[in-house]
From TrEMBL:
This is Transcriptional regulator, TetR family. It comes from Micromonospora pattaloongensis. Keywords: DNA-binding, Transcription, Transcription regulation. Pfam families: TetR_C_24 (PF17932), TetR_N (PF00440). SUPFAM superfamilies: Homeodomain-like, Tetracyclin repressor-like, C-terminal domain. Gene3D superfamilies: Homeodomain-like, Tetracycline Repressor, domain 2. Signal peptide: none annotated. The keyword DNA-binding applies.
């Protein structure tokens, strides 16, 4: 069970992610941040080291979660098609659960210092490498046609932009199915059903 301090920190991260997603990191002032989290300056800085450190934490939390879940997906004894669909479902669920943080992840990268950028890019690369591995395995097994894997760089953007611009009443699973339907249609060999 989380402590009160952990609950407060989680509330700070969630409220800040929503503000940064809506107004941008640089467009969000300290007073707005304090109002959103219901703390004074001393209370806020008791839980976070700096605004930039808060930004980094917002960006790392969602990617760390999908890194862990994608490891479990890749470890499963299933074919590449099943793994690819599972990666898509997992990412879609992650987007739906924490779209503000994912929006910040995509849009606010340039506001980080070099160390923060290195951490975010390293995790992003590690995550996309999991998608590449499944696509390579699927091509080797004949499930997928050989493709230029450069497109994998766009996967996070494809999901984030679809979720950001979708109507609020569109269910997350429907959005995920649409994205994965296009992806599967484009990569599956003609003998396999997309």
């Amino acid at each position: 069970m989380p402590t009160r301090g952990e609950d407060t920190r989680a509330r700070i991260v969630t409220a800040s992610a929503a503000l940064f997603a809506r107004q941008g990191y640089h467009g969000t002032g300290l007073s707005e941040l304090l109002d959103a989290v219901g703390l004074g300056k001393g209370g806020l800085y008791h839980h976070i080291a700096s605004k930039e450190q808060l930004l980094l934490e917002i960006m790392l939390e969602p990617i760390d979660r999908v890194l862990a879940s994608s490891d479990r997906i890749l470890a499963a004894d299933t074919d590449a098609t099943t793994k690819l669909r599972a990666l898509g479902d997992d990412l879609g669920q992650a987007m739906a659960a924490d779209l503000s943080a994912w929006t910040v992840f995509l849009r606010e990268y340039s506001a980080l210092g070099q160390d923060g950028k290195t951490q975010v890019l390293g995790r992003r690369q590690a995550y996309l490498d999991r998608w590449r591995r499944v696509l390579i395995d699927g091509a080797a097994s004949g499930e997928f046609r050989p493709i230029d894997l450069a497109f994998v760089e766009s996967i996070l953007g494809l999901f984030i932009y679809t979720f950001v611009w979708a109507r609020d009443d569109t269910p997350a699973q429907e959005l995920t199915n649409s994205i994965m339907g296009v992806l599967m249609h484009g990569i599956c060999t003609p003998t396999r059903s997309a």
